[in-house]
Specification:
single chain, alpha/beta, Rossmann fold, 2 domains, six-stranded mixed β-sheet, 14 helices, about 30% helix, globular, binds adenosine-5'-triphosphate, binds magnesium ion
């Protein structure tokens, strides 16, 4: 279906030529899912742009052949390529929010794609756009049709981008880092959805990611890229279980799995010393049955539903969860930043004002750990 032979891509820059992709070859069969894995800058995205012929100005395919269902994509005219893009091969870009028009309703954006490729008329475009939203399991699709991207969560934006990519029933979908910036549960939901839709429609797909574990779980075959070259390729399970190239071995070793602490995966020169530390017996923060509700249009919204915990002197507590799991409300409750939350008991071991002075709070958006809370012992 897709055959890539000796593909090279070069960019002309002020500092000279950058050889971003250097002679890569692979084939993709109908219905097959292939993962392209590699570190940042290894040439994964540039490979996909070259296949779609959407390289930045200054970039060109300097060598090789790309054949798509018998058509030479290097030699195809621009109008022929416009037919291939979206209709036969579609692409999900690295950042879903950047891929969407921020000032156009998401439903209208899907209609634009459907009408541009002759898949809908003015009269049935709205119904088909809502169908496309339902296909990617957006709840209240008819309502969400009128939403702007900024009104949706990152996971929802990614579903909209998938809906756009699938709108014209392409034969191949290329997903470039489809889950970057999503929390772990949304990542899984988005990947499961993509797998389901791809299988349902009998499509092929290329998943580009730096996460070898994710690629191994969702792809039949993997290609590992480094410095613009494919250093190793093969069936996912075999490659993961028995990596041959030293770089693949390093990638496999760096994939977190049970029994391996992340610290052990770091190169020795950047590991911080594992300092001994003792957890004291004095409880700094003790919370029992903490509840926080917001007034909502259709009744109170329960942001925190009766949680209990204790933080002892010298202890660090990590709270992990998806973005709607109530983490920021909890943090604000602990710090006493709100009007008093309802709790059976919320004792700080000291006065609240003094506790606020001595508690510090670090927030991080995106990534797997949403935030971290750490107490400093009071003097
Ligand atoms: N427009 C450009 N001009 C010059 N060099 C470029 C351009 N686009 C990409 N490159 C270079 O091509 C190489 C490969 O970039 P690419 O975006 O494919 O990396 P990647 O593997 O997708 O990385 P990431 O995981 O960070 O997305 C890099 O060295 C990059 O600097
Ligand atoms: Mg990239």
């Amino acid at each position: 279906m897709l055959s890539v032979k000796g593909l090279s891509v070069a960019f002309q820059t002020r500092k000279g030529q950058v050889d971003a992709v250097r002679g890569i070859s692979f084939d993709l069969a109908p219905g097959e899912t292939m993962g392209i894995v590699g570190e940042s800058g290894s040439g994964k995205s540039v490979t996909s742009y070259a296949l779609m012929r959407i390289l930045d100005a200054g970039g060109r395919i300097s060598a090789g052949e790309v054949t798509w269902t018998g058509t030479d994509l290097r030699a195809a005219s621009e109008p022929a390529m416009r037919q291939v893009r979206g209709r036969e091969i579609s692409m999900i870009f690295q950042n879903p929010r950047a891929a969407l028009n921020p000032i156009r309703k998401v439903g209208h954006q899907i209609e634009d794609v459907l009408r541009q490729h002759g898949r809908a008329t003015r009269s049935d475009a709205q119904a088909k756009a809502i169908e496309a939203l339902e296909a990617v399991k957006i709840r209240n699709a008819a309502e969400r049709y009128h939403a702007y991207p900024f009104e949706l969560s990152g996971g929802m934006c990614q579903r909209i981008v998938i809906a756009l990519a699938l709108a014209c029933d392409p034969k191949l979908m290329i997903a470039d880092e489809p889950t970057t910036g999503l929390d772990i549960t949304t990542q899984k939901a988005v990947m499961d959805l993509m797998r389901e839709l791809i299988h349902e429609r009998g499509m092929s797909s290329i998943v580009i990611t730096h996460d070898l574990g994710l690629a191994a779980e969702y792809c039949d075959r993997l290609a590992v890229m480094k410095d613009g070259q494919i250093v190793e390729a093969g069936p996912s399970a075999a490659l993961f279980a028995n990596p041959q190239h030293p770089y693949t071995r390093k990638l496999v070793d760096a994939t977190p799995r049970p029994g391996v602490a992340i610290r052990d995966l770091l190169p020795p020169e950047i590991r911080t010393p594992d300092l001994p530390h003792e957890v004291g017996s004095r409880a700094l923060l003790e919370v029992v049955d903490l509840v926080k509700t917001y007034p909502g249009k259709s009744g109170p919204v329960h942001a925190v539903k009766g949680i209990s915990f204790t933080i002892r002197e010298g202890q660090s507590v990590g709270l992990v969860g998806n973005p709607v799991a109530g983490n920021p409300p909890r943090r604000r409750c602990w710090c006493g930043c709100w009007t008093r939350p309802r709790a059976r008991s919320c004792s700080m071991g000291t006065r609240l004002a003094a506790f606020r002075r001595n508690a510090s709070c670090v927030t991080r958006a995106g990534g797997r750990c949403r935030w971290c809370f750490r107490t400093r012992p009071t003097a």
